Amino acid sequence: MTFKAKAVRAAAAAGLALVMTTGVAFASIGSATVTADSLRLRSEASTNSSTMAKAPKGATVTVEEDVGNGWYKVTYENQTGYMSGDWLTISLADGTVVPAAQGTEPQQKRGLITADVLNVRSGAGTSYEKVASLKGGDVVDIVADLGNGWYQIDSGYISAEYVTLVGADYESSSALGASAAAMARSLLGCRYRSGAAGPNSFDCSGLMYYIYKQLGHPIARGSSSQYYNSGYFVSTSAMQPGDLIFFFDRRFDSSGGTLPTTHVGMYVGDGQFIHASTTSYRVQYDSIYGYYAPYIVGAKRIG
Fold first, then answer.
1. Structural domains for the chain
2. Mind giving me the DSSP string for 174-233?
3. Which residue from 55, 172, 211, 293 has the fewest beta carbons nearer than 10 Å?
4. What span, in angstroms and rounded, lies between the C-alpha atoms of 236 and 294?
5. On the CB side of 30, how many CA atoms lie within 13 Å of its CA?
6. 298 has which bridge partners?
7. Other C-beta atoms within 10 Å of 95: how many?
8. Distances from the Cα of 198 to the Cα of 148, 214, 241, angstroms
């Protein structure tokens, strides 16, 4: 009797399901149902390994082996890899049900690329070889935050310095907006000077004007002119890096209420904007929450 025939007969006697791989039959230990919104099939039994596929909630996988440490070797859509048992309800061949330890997989971190071009490297450091590149505005899934200024993604490693974390459902922003945000970061620390529009000092609207002019998308010069004439309005709840965010504070209004804004900055993600501050007299980060929140009057996207 052949090995294959023996495996089939033995499995049938034990009441086990069979998995066929390259013409060889072997017994699975049962099946499992995914309880996470999305669960990764990985190349190895580790969250640091690459992703082969993603199984949605309710998907069924064949469980081939318990490899220990809460991980299982499984087959899903004709691919064999590894899944964490924390988000699998497992039905063993003998009728035993092992419930999932967790209800949902931890929220996937995603990153928006803010550099014009970002190298993907074979290891976590600039000394490692370049294996690919990403362009500004790309959004990537982050497999692991290594905690040393580098992120691991499916294709390699990228510097966290040029990545803004975004929500799991975030879609790619335009390359123009990402490039504008990257340029704003490069100008942090430059001095504020009324009427200045670069390259070494700026007022608030001069900073926006300078950045977009350098990127080949000239906009109006003053903050109220930018509010009226540049780009198009977007919801402040849906701002993306590179969007202009406008403020009105009557204490700084010299128009007697005839103009819509008294200040402008650039949203760069994570609830932060960069602006030429009239209080600290330099280009700096600030939060859209707290002090500035009551004075926000709108946001516009360029391009």
1. 3-98 (2.30.30.40), 109-166 (2.30.30.40), 176-301 (3.90.1720.10)
2. PHHHHHHHHHHHHTTTPEE-TT-BSSSEE-HHHHHHHHHHHTT----SSHHHHHHHSSEE
3. 293
4. 13
5. 16
6. 246
7. 8
8. 34, 10, 21
Could you tell me which of 20, 19, 84, 81 has the C-alpha nearest to residue 53?
A: 81
- pLDDT in 10s for each residue of the chain, 303 residues: 432 333 333 333 344 444 333 333 345 688 999 887 778 888 898 877 778 888 888 899 999 988 988 899 999 988 999 998 888 888 887 777 877 766 444 556 778 777 768 999 999 999 999 999 987 667 788 888 888 899 988 889 999 988 877 655 555 556 788 889 989 999 999 999 999 999 999 999 999 999 999 988 999 999 999 999 998 898 888 888 999 999 999 998 988 888 999 999 999 988 899 999 988 899 999 999 989 999 999 999 987
pTM of the entire structure? 0.48
Residue in the structure block whose two tokens are 């202009």: 244
> What are the tokens at 291?
């002090």
Q: Which residue is associated with the tokens 């402040």?
A: 236
- CA 215/CA 209 separation, integer angstroms: 10
How many other C-beta atoms can be found within 10 angstroms of the C-beta atom of residue 7?
A: 17
- Supply the DSSP symbol for 114: -
Residues with active-site annotation: 204, 263, 275
| Dihedral angle, C-alpha 256, 260, 266, 271, nearest 10 ° | 100
